[in-house]
């Protein structure tokens, strides 16, 4: 993080003054930091390394719990519950619309294969399916739930 900060700072200050050397100017501060906390950087590196090494194990535990059905998500504020409900309804609409498109495509293929009766039925089913998928999302009333 410190390296990125210094790199960004070097880029910003050398544009107005190309002779300015950020690293030379930062040496006294770096020395003072190392004198005050000589092992602080080691501790930060070890903490970051431990986080990186622990991530696969944490991910494995998370996936195992989710496969066993032990994970639950709880919304702690009403806005999240409403938003999740709208997202779920949106996905349901999307599934209805995609299924309707499949019915319509089957109807078009039936029509191309000179089967007008079957094409009409399939196109009708697809049209109804699409209309159902386009229905407005229901909005919950304030205080309702």
What does this structure look like?
By secondary structure, the chain is an all-alpha fold. It folds into two domains: 2-67, no CATH class; 78-133, no CATH class. Helix content is 75%, strand content 0%. Helix 4 packs antiparallel against helix 5. The protein starts with a helix and ends in a 12-residue tail after the last helix. Residues 140-145 have low confidence and may be disordered.
Question: What value does the Rg take, in angstroms?
Answer: 30 Å
Beta-strand level of the residues, as a percent range?
A: under 5%
Instruction: Give the quaternary arrangement of the chains.
Output: single chain
Helix-and-strand structural type: mainly alpha
Distance between the termini: 46 Å
Helix content: over 70%
Short structural description:
The chain is mostly helical and 145 residues long.
Features:
single chain; mainly alpha; 145 residues; disordered C terminus
Topology, element by element:
Elements: H1 2-14, H2 22-36, H3 40-67, H4 78-112, H5 116-133
Helix pairs in contact: 4-5
